[in-house]
Amino acid sequence: MNIKIGSLLLLLIVSDISFAADDGIAYLQQEIKVKVEVLDEPCDIAPGDELINIDYGTIVDKYLYINTRTIGEKFKINLIDCDISISDRVAISFSGIENSKLPGMLSVIPMSGQGDVGIGIGFETESGEFIPLSDEKQYKLNEGDNSFTFNTFVQAEIDRLIARTIKLGEFESSAIFHLNYD
After folding, report:
1. Architecture of the domain spanning 43-181
2. Greater confidence, 32 or 98?
């Protein structure tokens, strides 16, 4: 799973529109004032955490038919050099292409490129609380380094469980994690 982050940028555009007449011809004059403020982020992402790969290894379909989902695979987002005078809170969220049959979960793409696999990937807190795509989880920042642990898991679609038609083979998916500072 590829997880990436972008930077913060605040853009404020103010437009003043006025009309002027010269020699009986009306001209539209537009003055655009642009103010850009680049915000200093309170934390840096630890080197190597910009791209996080998660390998589920081998998942036996019978396990999904019995348990509906896998045990969570842990991963961490490590923030370093945090300056809480800039912000002492961060909201973390995940985004990606949503599985239409498993709301709030990522869809997957079979490596063979053919068909629907019948599974999705979910995110949860370290304690097992489900985090739907685009939902933010708020965390308090400490001065210096901070580490946030999450789990991802594979879950089967209900109709595929009932029909016992989970597609076998390798799959992939990607998501983006977002850091929003208060």
Report:
1. Sandwich (2.60)
2. 98
